[in-house]
Structures are given as C-alpha cells and as structure tokens.
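Folding Query — how this chain folds
Tokens — whole-number codes for backbone shape
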Amino acid sequence: MLLQQNWVSSRWTWQSLGKSFIFFVLLMLQAADLEARRGHQFVWKTGHWGRCVGDCGSGGTRSRAVWCTHTEGWTSHHANCDQQEKPESQRRCFKVCDWHLELFEWEVSGWGPCVPGGEAGPCVMAQHGLQRRSARCLQKLDRSVVAAEICEHLAPQPPLEQACLVPCPRDCIVTDFSSWSQCGGGCSIRFRHRTRAVIAPPLYGGAPCPNLTESQTCAAAACPLGEEEHTYSLKVGPWGECRVPRREDASLNLGEDSGELSASWLESHKAQHHPHMAQVGYQTRAVSCVRSDGRHAVLSLCIQDAAPLTSKTCVIDKDCETSEWSAWSSCSQTCSWGDLTPGFRSRHRSVRSVAMGSGKLCPELEEKEACSTGGRELKPCPRFSWRTSEWKACQVSLFDQQSPRHHKHAVLCGGGIQTREVYCVQITVEAEMHRMKEVSRPVDGKFCLGPAPSASQLCDLPCPLECTVSAWLAWGPCLPEDCRDRQGRRGFRMRQRHVLVDPVGTLAGCPHLVESIPCEDPMCYEWIVSEGICVADHGKCGPGKHILKTVCKNKKGEEVPYHLCSELPRPDVMACEIPCATDCVLSEWSQWSPCSHSCSSKIAEGSQSRSRSILALPAEGGKACPPDRALQEHRTCNDHPCVHFFWETSPWSSCSEDVLLSALNATISWSGEATCGVGMQTRKVFCVRNGSGHVTPKRCPDSTRPEIMRPCLLPCKKDCIVTPFSEWTRCPTACQPGNATAVKQSRYRIIIQDAANGGQACPDTLYEERECEDIPVCPVYRWKTHRWSHCVLVPESVRQNVLGHNEACGHGLQSRAVTCLTENDEAADVSECMKWAEPMPPLVQDCLVPCKDDCTFTPWSKFTACSFDCESTKTRRRSLTGRSRKRDKCQNTEVYPQVETELCPCEVFTSQPHGNWSDCIIGGGKLELQAGVQSHGGTKECGEGVRLRAIACYDKAGRLVEPSHCSSSGYIEESCTVPCPFDCKLSDWSSWSPCSSSCGTGMKVRSKWLKEKPYNGGRPCPKLDLKNQVYEAVPCYTECNQYSWVVEPWSPCKINSEQNSLHCGEGIQTRKVRCVSTTEDHGGETVPNTLCNKAEIPSEIRKCSLYCPNECAVSDWGPWSTCPQVCDPSTVQTRSRQVLRSPVSRKPCPEDSQMKPCILNQNCFQYQYNLTAWSTCQLNGNATCGRGVRKRLLSCVRSDGETVSARHCEQRRLEKPVETSSECVVQCVVDCRLSAWSAWSQCSQTCGSGGQMVRGRTVLLKAAAEGRPCPAQLSQHRSCPVKPCYSWHLGPWSPCRLQGGQCGDGLQVRNLTCVVHDASVSATSKPVESTLCGELPLKESVLQLPCSVPCPGDCHLTEWSEWSSCELTCIDGRSFETTGRQARSRALIGQPAENTDSCSGQVVETRPCSGGRCYEYLWKTSLWRDSVRTVWCQRSDGINVTGGCALQTKPAEVQHCSPACRKPFSYCTQRGVCGCERGYTEIMRSNGLLDYCMKVPGLEDKKADVKTISGKNKPVNSKMHDIFKGWSIQPFNPDGKLKMWVYGVSASGFLIIALLIFTSFLMCKKSKQHQSTPPQQKPLTLAYDGDIDM
C-alpha cells in the first residue's frame, strides 16, 4: 500500500511537474514569438532636420526627433525598437551666420516668356499666363554655386513664378506703298516697282510681314522685230577660294624671267613646311556680259578697253594651331569653409602656328575652373574680427574752453574725449579641436566684415572738490579724557563740526573737525534737578520748601545709575515762599540772557543776566518789596580762554610695500585686477594751538588723536602691450620692368595697453619698411623677321587664256617667316612673344613685278636730317633704272615723282586750360598732389592754399600731346585762401546776483553777453535773448531767521501818580526792541530794523497792573495752547495764569483762564513743504561740460502763503519730498573731428578730358551741442591733366568696288586710321602715326565686306529703310513693357516681272528702344460712291498702315441694296435698304420701298445750292445719318404690310375724336341751361418767362 501510495504520489507529482514544465515551455515559446514579432511590429520614425545651431562655421549641429512607433501607429518606448537600426539624431553642419550676408546672395534669372494658360478663346486685349524663372545661391567672391539652404537662412528664396499678361497676337504692320519708280524711254520692255517698309514686327504669334515689293510692266510701244534697244553690262563674279599652285604651273616657260619665277613658286611651295610663314596661292573669278533684259551676251560686247582682272594672288587660309592642353594644376583651395568656397585650378596650351589669311584666330591659351579637394581634409580658413586697444586717458583739453585765460593755471575737468586703436585681427579655428585661436597680428581692415567699433567716445574727468564742513557746534561740558579713570583730573571742553562734502581729486584733506580747551574739575555725571510745587511750612502762606526731583545723567543726557553721581551732593529740597495777603508779590525769574562773549580773555569776559518784577505792593504789616538791585542777577559765562587746541595732520604718503605685509600678500590671492597686494601709508600728527603753531601733544586730548598709519592697496605694474608686427605688405606679384624703381614693403604694430605704475615701457619703433626682394623681372622677348620671299604672281596656266595678261608681271604677294627670340637670342615659343613682345610683324605684303613697259625705280632713300627750325623740311629720292631711263613717259616727274618732301616735326607746343578750377587745396605740396600719396601730420582746414586747373597740350599741327611737353605737373597753379571759421564768442559769466528773496526760496541769476558772432562755419552761439544775452538761473534759499527781533526786559510798571496816590493799579510798561543778526559770523550784532520782518515786530509798550495792597495778585498770562494741525473752529486754544496772592476782601480774583476758537490763518496755521523747480545742471570746479548736479530747494510755507522757518515743518514731522538733487549731464561742446585726407585716387580716365581725381576724409567724431560743425566738403576733386587718347578710327564704307565690272560681286572697303583725340563728345580726331595706337584691333574681314551691284534680271535688296518710331506694346492704352521696339526693312526687287515669284528674301530687323509711346490703330472710311467706299487702317499719329486694325471690326466696303438705289439723293444704308441723304426725308411706297426723297423745309444749306454738285455731294456723317434714319415715318414693312404702330395711331385718333365730340356736347348743353354768356377765356399756354419759380 505504501508503495502504491508512493507511486501514486510520484505519478501525481510528475504529472504536476510535467504540466508546469509544458506551461513554462509554452510561455517561453510565446515570449520568444512575441519578441520576434515585436521586432517586426516596431519601427523607428524620424522628424525633419532642424536648423543648424552652434558656432559659426563647420562646428554647427542640427538635430531631429527620433521615436519608436508600432506598425499600428502608436508611439512606444525606445527599447521596443532595434537599437542597432536607430537613425542618427544629430549631424554635423555648417552654421551660416549673419556675417555671411556679405558672402552669399540669391541670383535670379530673368523672367521667362509668358506662357498662356486656361482655355483658348477669342482674345480681346490680353490673356492671362504664367512666367517662371530660376534662382540659385551664389558666393559673391567667385560667383560659384553653393547649397540653396545657405541663402535660405539669410533671406527667403525669391518667388519663382508670377502671373502675367500676354497681349493678343499682333500682325506685322507696314506702311503704304511708295510711288512707282520711273519707266525708261524706248520701245523695249521695262518694269517699274514700288516698295513699303515695316514699322512694327509681328508679335505674340501674329501674322508675318506681307510682300514689301510690287512690280508691273511699263506701258511702252513694241519695238520692230530685230530693232530692240539693249544695253550691256560687264558682270563680275565673286572671287573663288584661294588655291595652292600646282607644280606644273610653276614649271611652265614664262619667258625672260622664267627661272626666277619658277624658283619663287618652289620657294612658296616649300614655305608650307615653315610653321610661321604664309603660303601664297591664287584665286580666280568669272566674268560675263549681261544684256539689259537679263539675257547673256557675247563678252566682247562688254569689254571695250582693258579686260577686267580675273585672277590674283592670295594667302592660303590657315587656322591657328595650338598644342594640347597641359594637365590641370593642383586645386588652389588651401583651407576649408565647409562647402562654401571652392578652389580653382588652371591649365595652359601654347601656339604652334599663328593664323594665316582669314583663318581662325588663336583661342584662349589659359583655362580656369572651380575645383574641390576631393574629400581631402583641409584646415579651416582663417576668420577675422575687430579688436580694440584700451581706452586712453580722458582728454579734456580737446575742448576749446570759452576763456582760456581763466583756465590757464586751473586743472581741466568735466567732459572730454578718449580714443583707442581699432584694428582687425585674424582668428583661426583648430580643425581637430574646433576651438578658436586668436592671432593678434593686425591685418588689413578690409578683411573684417561689419562696422568697426567706435574709435572715440565722450568721457568725464571728475572735477576736484574741496572739503566742505559744517559750522562749529556749541562747546561741550568739561569732561575728563576717560570717565573710567577716576584718578585723572585732566579735562577738556570740546566742540565739533562734521563733513558736508568729501574732497575729490585733491591732495589736501578736510580741516580738523574737533577743537578742545583744557578745563578744571571735569565731571562725567551730574544731578539733573526738576522743581516741584512750593509747600508752605505753616498755613497757606509764608516760607516753605520746593520738593526737588533729581536724576543722575551723563553728559549725553542719558539717565545712569545713581551711584555714578554719589560723589556729588544730591539736592533734595529748596527754600521758597508763598506771599500772604499783605506781602509784596514778585514775578518768576526770567531766562538767562545770551552770553555776551563766546570765550573769556584778559580784556573781555562773558556774562549773562536775568530779572524779575514787582507784581503787587504790600499792605501795612506785610513783607516789603526788595530794592531794585535785588530784582536783577548777573553771572559769568563762557569763562574758558579763547585759545583752542586741535590735531593737525600731514597728507598721507604714497602706498608702499611693507615688510610685515609681504608674507600676507604671498599667501592671499587678491581678486581685484587693479590691485596687487596690500601696502602701508603713513602721515605725521601735530598738536596745534590756533594762531600759535605747534605745541606739546599734551595740550590736545589723546582720545581724538588721528591715526598715523593705514593699510592701502598696491597698484599693479602695467607693462606696455603691443601687437606683433603685421605681415609685410605684399610685394607685386606681377613682373616689373628691369629699369623700374625699387618697391618697398612695410609693416606696423599697435599699442593696445600703455605702461603704468612702473611697468615696462612701450617700444619706440611701431613702423618698419624695407625694399622688396625677389621681384620677378618681366622676360624680354622679341620678334625676328626673315627675308621676304620673291614676289609671287598668278601662275601662267591660270592667266594664259586672258587677253592682255601673257606677260609675267604685275601685282603679287611676298611672304616671310617670323620667329620668336629670347633676350639671349635663343628660340622661344611664339606664344611668349605674343604675350610679352610688340605686335607681330606682318607676314605678307604686296609686291610689284614691273612689266616691260613699266617705269622702274630704285628704292626710296632715307629722309634727310631735320634742323631745329620749325619751317624746315626733309626729303628723300629715287632714280630710274634700266630701260626706264630712256623712256619719255618715265621722265614725267608729275606722274612719276623722283623726290618727296615732307615737313619736319616741330617741337613747339601750346597749352590751353581745360576744365574747372579744383577746390582750394590746403597744404598740398608737390609730393602730396601726386596720386596715391597720403597726407600726413596735422591737417589744416583753412588758410593759404593752391588751386589747380588742368591743361591740354597741343603741337603745332593742333594735335593733342602729352601734357609734360607744356608743364611738368600738367596744371596751372594759382594761390587761394580758405577763410578760417570764427566761433561765437561770449563774455565770462557775471557774478551771481543776490537771492531774490530774503526769506525762503528765491532765484539768483548770472549772465553772459555776445561779444562776436560766428561766421565761416564757426561754433554757433547758444540761444540768446533779445539783448543778445544768455542767462543761468538757480534757486536759492535764505534762512528766515537770519535776522530776529531781540527784546530787553519790561520796565517796571509805571503808575500815573497824579491820579493815584497809592501808586498801584493800571500802568504802562516799556521795553527796548532791536533787530540783531543770528548768523554764526555776526551773531548778536545789531542791524537796521529794516532787515527784520516788520509784521513780526514785538510791541514796545503794554498795559500793566500793579496790584494794590490787599488785592488779589495773579501772574502773567501763560502761552496759548497750540491748535491742532487740522484747523477746526469747534476746537479752542486756552491760556491760564495763577493766583499769587489771595485778596483780603471778598472781592473776587480776575479770571485765571481764557479761550478762543482755532480759526485758519488767524491763530491756526497749516504748513507744507514747497519745492522749487529744478535748477540748470551745475558743474563742479572748472568743468565746462560733463556730469553735474541739478538741485531744487525745499521751503516751509504757511497756509497764508508766508514762507517761514523750516523748523515749523520739521516740528510737525511733515513728509519731505524724496529727491532734492539728481545727477545730470551738460552736453560737451564737441567740435567735428575729421580724418586726414586720403591719398589722391587714380584718374577716373586713362586719357582724354573729363577725368577726375578725388580724395576724401571721413567724420571721426560728429559735432555736438554748440561744437564746430563738420564741413560740407568731405571730398575734393581736381581735373586730371589731359592726356592724348589714341584709337583706331574706322572710315566710312566705300561704294561697292567691282574691279572693272559694271555689276556683280565686289567689295566694300574702309580705312583704319590711328587718330588722337581728347575723348570728349565734341572731340575732333586728328591722324597720327600708327605706332601710337599699338596692335590692330580688327581683322581684315571687318575692313572689307562683300557687296553686289545688281545686274539686269537679278534680284536685289533695297537699302535699309529708316528706323520706325519707338512703339510700346500697350493694353487698353497703358504700356505693357518698359522698352519699346523699332523696325526697319529691306525690300527685294527683281526683274523681269515674271521672275519676281522666284525672288524671296526680304529682310526685317528690330531693336529695343527707350522713350516710346502707345499707338492706336483705327479703321477709316471714305464717303459712299455708288454703294462703294474705301476702308483703310490708320495709326493714331496719322500714318496709314496695313495691319494693326482688328479684322473683326473692319467696316463694309460695298453695300448691296435690292433693287438698287437709283432715286435722286438716295443711297444704300448699312441695313441694306435705300435711304435719303441729309436734308431729305423718305417717302415710302405701300410695299415698304423708297418712292422718292422729299426735301425737308427749313434745312436748306445757305452755303451751297442743292442743285449744284457741291451741294448735292456735300459730305455728311454717314454714321449719324444711319442712326436717325430709323426715326423716319415708314408705315410699311419691307414685305409691304402695315406696321403695328399704324393700327395703334389710328385707334388712338378715333378715341380722341370721340372724346372731343362728347365734351363739346356737354358744354353746349350747359350753356343753354344758364343762358348766360361766360366771359371769354384765354387759351391755356405754357411758356417760360424767365422766372426762377417756373
């Protein structure tokens, strides 16, 4: 059982494990399947690349988004996609930056043709279309194409398509035919023709031009048979191709000179083996005889005298031959800016043989193309950037002070100018690290793009300020030096003042701020006593005591513990007395008067007093009043001596390094750039007695002794920093002639930091120059000419059949070889001489082999020498040779001259001024006036100068020559003056006026006045008033308590004793009132009463009461209580008094209190702060401009408008305005600063008149404020000396030369002459030697043109017609194009008429033109004649044309009416019916046809009889006539039926008649009933009488 159970359990276990294993396997397979399927279900997606960001250049990057998506479209995690296939999200790119704006630009092509679009339909005026163009991004430097995205970053791509209009097709437009040509006389058949010209070519698909020629046979009588009249013309054909002679041609027996000629042919035949020698051949032409009717005739009928030339020698055409191209050179690109700057490469080829005859000229021998490095890594190209030196010190002296005498010894301060050097440096990028590395060597500023930084700026130099201190405070109590030292009995009384304005820029510091006086019995603490109420010892009156309240306080007024005052007796009580009813009553003691002296001396001692008065007299038995002397008390005050002591210090020494601080500096790194550690400053301290000099230090308190040492910051040593020397300026790369002057190169460096604080000084040499080395010298090549060959004639075999040409003589050609040699006479390539040498000598020239009957001569001798006389001549001679000496015809010197005479050149020259005078040039020396030489040193702006006028130099023949023949400089010089500018001059500032107010705020003013007005561009004046003055006003403040009323004590109450025997009761008191100064300097001095406020003067007299015995005695009234700040009539102010003595009787005491309401501006006042306006900007010290301070003052104003002391506002703690001063800037008077004049430019023309040289200067600093303005002239011009211009002048074409024929093919020739002129419009050219013009610019083909003279029966073209007027293409009267067109044509004329159809080839030419106009083309018609009229097209300028008018709108030329209109005065209308002429009306038949024309009455023409032909055929406007013909009364239709309107008129007429009958009946009936005759009524008429109400 157990085994069975185990087995069962094992089985169950295996079954469970198997199921789990199978489930796990299935799960893994599923996971693997999912993993495999996931790889196919998830894919990478990318966004668009973003813009290139980062640093300029190749270091930029561009990014794009990359994400993983499911195939169903939803986004998933990146891990689900294959990481190996993940696309890149970043890529290197070239960042195009703003400075590339100067490097790249869009280039757009012109708009292409307008292509019509949409459905094709009838064209009315124009049809819509589309134009396209292309755009590409170019680099400006070499115009190479780069990626378009570069330009897209800088500017959007220009639009490439635009809508357009295509005008309707326009046919060719031609003029009317000309008149017929003349017919000749005689009986033979002749023809005449007429032509017309094209005035507008066909446009936009219009019809081509029609035939421009019409021909017809002339009407002439027929000639009898065999007696026709004919003329004959010799027709020559064109010259054939130049052919090489054959050997058998050269071996023929040619007679006497056959040996020489055979040799010459063989030599010329061999010449083809020499590459640079022309080969001579021959060419022929055909000759025939043509009859006037175009038929050929026998040649003998045309040849009368000599036979025409049918053969001639020529040069065999040979094209220029060049070698193969050399290999391409390496790419010139040495650095990389990405793909933006391709390099260049070139290749060359040389000339093997030059062109002969009319062969093709040599092509270009050098070829360049753009190239790239082919993936080769290059270092990045250098870039350039502006750099600046440090700013130099602020220079105030650049400003012209108004009064230099005033500032002669003063330190200039305020606004100024500081400058710095601005230069361009090269920056390279290290390719491997993509890191910028700056090379501070300066380079030419043209490499730096963008505007250069400013080289000057305004600055401010602080003005020195003296220390300003306050007034001395009052003397303090006698204090010991140290209250903690109880033993020391030495004491001092001190007074202080404080610094109001700290000193700036001055070596002297502030004066001493503490003064002391030695004193005795110093006390640190004291009892402060306050009295209590007097309490009688017994009863209510009599002697008593004041209970005193005491507090211990220090000298600062602070309460301290009592034990500090234990050394001093503490007062507890003080005796007093309350008057009884019968006692004398006294007032309280007054306050102590001010001390009479501030200190005590042997002569004067300070004192002060106080007093009291008797208020009530005693009764009998009472206590008596004291004597008068007991009513006053005196005491001494300010008993200290007038000698003061104070500490005085010397200025601080300069900051020096201290030994003790060296270690500290070594361990601490100071962050400040301008400091290099800590040093020490020292000074000396002395005790000084005022007015006596130094005393022992014991006389001054040690507690206030100033320090004698303090730490300071050591300034760093600044070494001079200069840039490295710039690169040497380039030496010329082009070769220089061997005798050229030495060329120099230079370099420079710039100071970017000056030395300071003992640093290394700057070097002396900032500019160096040296001569260029290894300048290539131009190679010297020359042409070598070989001997001329024998004169080559046409071979005998060619001319043996021609009459009169059997002899071997006449005109021929001879050739020679030309080779190129070096300077050492070594053979060189021809291309070298073509590049470096003079023009190639001619290879062929004409020659003459004299015939037997010709006269022969020796060659011309050389001309004889010329003398220096301008009238002298030179001659040359020749003589007859051989048989010619015996012939008589050869002796005729008129036909065969043997001596030639020419005038010798005359070295006499005349000059003429040319052009205008130049500007006045100041300080222009001989050297400076040359082109390319820059002015140095200070530039003068005014004074003496020179003005120039160019000259033109002419020889005796009136030909322009080099100006150096007439003047070394080529100018006429004349002194001139540029007036100097005078500035506006003002006086110095006047003194400040007193303050306009004696109390509170006011104004004080100062002024300047005009001394001299400015002129010649001087500094302008500031704005002046009508008195030519300028003012400056600033607010001022005067303390309101500078003067105050001082009163003395009241006198005793004076009773009128005459009325009062008791001497009591009412009386009068007086006192003295005087005005005193309250200022520190004059405190207490009596001043005139006018300086004090009269409204506030205290009373000098008052009523008083001296109470009688036994009466109630009261004290004086106390002060009124204060009203609240807000005045309210419901509130009151009170005052009170005390009862000093009770009455004996029951008589009540007087009132002891009073009150009154608080009324505004009576006894209650409100106060507020008042601000003045801002002052003008006030500068410090000697500054004339720069930073300053503007102020506004604060005053306290009472509600009644009275300005009062500021303490009233301060006591009420009113809020003060925040800002009473602010910084400001006075604009500096800056004169315009200009750069030095640049070098004179090269002449704008290489020769001729009108050339200009210019030099300029730039504004370095613009004028500001009232500164001297910049001159209007920033450039100067002067004319160049007139140099002769040499050019080849083409003469007019000759008539067609046929060389012996009357018609056929020939040549037109023109001459090429070297002329001299001055290049002006009205220049006259004069011929000169050909060598002055250099190489011939034109080939022979331009000097000769084939032409033809038509023979009878030939077709030929007429001469060109005149150019038509300029016509614009217009749509609806508006110009469609900016340029117009002109046309001309040549018609083709042929004879006889039957051959005209085979002649074709008329020619039309067009050209663009400007200034055209729009034309309209309209159909014009003549009057009808027998139903026929002429219709033609006419242009709006009146020219009749063919074409131009729309055929759809062409009026009819023929009218068809059936039956025909034969009635008098009738004609056929456009509707095809007969109508009547003007003045006649149609009378129609019943069938609708015209019966006859009836004359309309009243329309007779008074100027012509209708019966006459002139009246009958008077032209009328047929169009208007046809319009009004529709209004004629015609009751019948053309088919004979009545028209509908006839029935309508009949019915209407019947109704009207019936209505009239019915109305008449009613009227007659009514009249019978009344039987009374009504009054006769006027007929109703409507007429306008001119009234405006009508």
